[in-house]
Amino acid sequence: MNAKQTDTRHRVVILGSGYAGLAAAVQLAGRVKGRQDVQVTLVNAQERFTERLRLHMTATGQEVAALDIPELLTGTGVRFVRGWVTAIDAETKAVRIDDDRELPYDTLVYGLGGVADTTAVPGAEDHAYTLSGVQDAQLLAERLARLTTGTVVVAGSGLTGVESAAEIAERYPELRVVLLGRQEPGANMNPRARAYLRGALDRLGVRVRAGVEVVKVLPDAVELADGETLDADAVLWTSGTRVSPLPAAAGLEVDAHGRIVTDQALRSVSHPNVYAIGDAAAIRQGYGVMHGTCQGGMPTGVHAALSIDRTLRGKQPKPFRFGYYHTPVSLGRGDAVVQFTRPDDSPRRICLTGGLAVRYKETVTASPWPTYSRMKKMPASGAFWPHGGRFTRIRSAK
Ligand SMILES: Cc1cc2nc3c(=O)[nH]c(=O)nc-3n(C[C@H](O)[C@H](O)[C@H](O)COP(=O)(O)OP(=O)(O)OC[C@H]3O[C@@H](n4cnc5c(N)ncnc54)[C@H](O)[C@@H]3O)c2cc1C
User: Fold this and answer.
1) Residue 390: which pLDDT band, with cuts at 50, 70 and 90?
2) Where is the FAD/NAD(P)-binding domain (predicted)?
3) Is the CB of 88 under 6 A from ligand 1?
């Protein structure tokens, strides 16, 4: 193919090879296979896939599988670019990589995810550990390995906080693990699942303090809203998620969390040639704006790919609909609880606990990679997820 022909190709650039971005790349590659007029490029900071769902394992020194993104993409025709995205120019339609390379696009898919919101209280950015990426998790692992005694404070009693506190307490029984948060752990679960979760944390020796608010992180302590100070040899910050300032700086419409506001086809409402997927997207459903999960993130990637394919074939994209179905929570390696949910994420009566829940959780956690491999051969296999019925219907939808 000569340079002139290359210039006429429709360039789709996908930013981020996490759960959502990789789903978008593999699905789109399958849909446009054989087309010479479309080029798909995937940009990511590392060649190794980050299993965010296992970062609390990495943070406690456990080995996780090395999953290679370029290897997975072999044979798909997707061009992989390793690099750090530093800017998006939505006017000239180009992405800047590592400050010195530029990638032009016709269609952009933004899937750079989010990080722990350490800007929420003073000191968290400087003194707290996070599970925002592998390197952050490894820093905590190094710290924990050096501690023979002392206190680890996990700030944030959401599910990442619960899974992390349980994992740390199980791996390091000599450490005192304190879980702090505004809400009871498992607050969104039914009473049975919540009680089971709380019992497991008690059994592992995690001290739970709900109804408290951390207002400051110090080098060796945290300060609570009532003035109390708790000594801490390590603080893990899990409360809240923050999205990179890149979309806002590019002039894209974002919500209060910095997420790109999308229409029903997952296009930016201000820049329709930009799709937003995964944790970085503010996607409205009948029940409200979706919150970041892998279970919802992968379908957003697949749907964006389907929308782009339809648009390239001169068709209208379809509205995206997604309903939640479960909340699987690990409680160390030997225990777990799975809360089944309605499409709006409210708890059903049914839940799994103990060994069955452990197997369920592991099956779910391990499933994305084989799903991508399957999608390579059979794109349609990745295009199924619960659409949520009346829970996700938006009245104004056409
Ligand atoms: C400990 C933990 C446990 C979790 N457990 C669950 C669970 O059980 N179930 C569930 O549904 N969800 C879970 N989640 C949430 C889930 O991990 C996220 O919702 C999911 O990862 C979002 O996918 P994503 O593709 O949007 O972003 P990510 O998976 O975060 O992928 C983003 C990618 O973009 C790359 N990137 C970011 N910025 C740049 C840049 N500037 N330049 C280049 N590359 C960049 C990152 O390196 C990464 O590869 C958990 C999260 C954590 C931290």
Assistant:
1) confident
2) 11-286
3) no
For residues 213 and 98, state if they share a domain. Answer: no
* 67 and 129 housed in the same domain: no
What percentage of residues in the chain have a pLDDT greater than 90? 92
Q: Is the CB of 20 under 6 A from ligand 1?
A: yes
Per residue, the 3-state secondary structure of the chain, as one string, reads CCHHHHHHCEEEEEECCCHHHHHHHHHHHHHCCCCCCEEEEEEECCCECCCHHHHHHHCCCCCCCCCEHHHHHCCCCCEEEECCEEEEECCCCEEEECCCEEEECCEEEECCCCEECCCCCCCHHHHCECCCCHHHHHHHHHHHHHCCCCEEEEECCCHHHHHHHHHHHHHCCCCEEEEEECCCCCCCCCHHHHHHHHHHHHHCCCEEEECCCEEEEECCEEEECCCCEEECCEEEECCCEECCCHHHHCCCCECCCCCEEECCCCEECCCCCEEECHHHEECEECCEECCCCHHHHHHHHHHHHHHHHHHHCCCCCCCCCCCCCEEEEECCCCCEEEEEECCCCCEEEEEEEHHHHHHHHHHHHHCHHHHHHHHHHCHHHHCCCCCCHHHCCCCCCC
Note whether 387 and 249 are same-domain residues. yes
> Is the CB of 97 within 6 Å of ligand 1?
no
Instruction: Write out pLDDT tens, residues 9-58.
Output: 999 999 999 999 999 999 999 999 989 999 999 999 999 999 999 999 99
Nearest CA to ligand 1 atom 7: 53
Cα(114) to ligand 1 centroid in Å equals 7
Residue nearest (by alpha carbon) to ligand 1 atom 37: 112
Q: What is the pTM of this model?
A: 0.95
Residue located nearest, by CA, to atom 2 of ligand 1: 53
Q: How far is the CA of 26 from the centre of ligand 1 (A)?
A: 17
Q: What is the CATH number of the domain that holds 201?
A: 3.50.50.60
